[in-house]
Amino acid sequence: MDDEVHGGGTPDGVHQEPVVKYRKVSKSYGSTVVLNEIDLDIYPGEKVAVIGPSGSGKTTLARMLMTLEEPTAGTIEVDGELLWHQKVKGKLVPANEKHLHNVRSKIGMVFQHFHLFPHMTILRNVTEALIHVQGMSRAEATERALEMLEKVGLSDKVDEYPSRLSGGQKQRVAIARAVVMRPRVMLFDEATSALDPELVGEVLSVIKDLAAAGDMAMMLITHEMDFAGEIADRVIFTDAGSIVEQGTPEQIFERPQSPRLQAFLSRFRQTWFMGGVQEASISAEKR
Ligand SMILES: Nc1ncnc2c1ncn2[C@@H]1O[C@H](COP(=O)(O)OP(=O)(O)OP(=O)(O)O)[C@@H](O)[C@H]1O
Question: Using CA positions, which residue lies closest to atom 5 of ligand 1?
Answer without folding.
Answer: 29
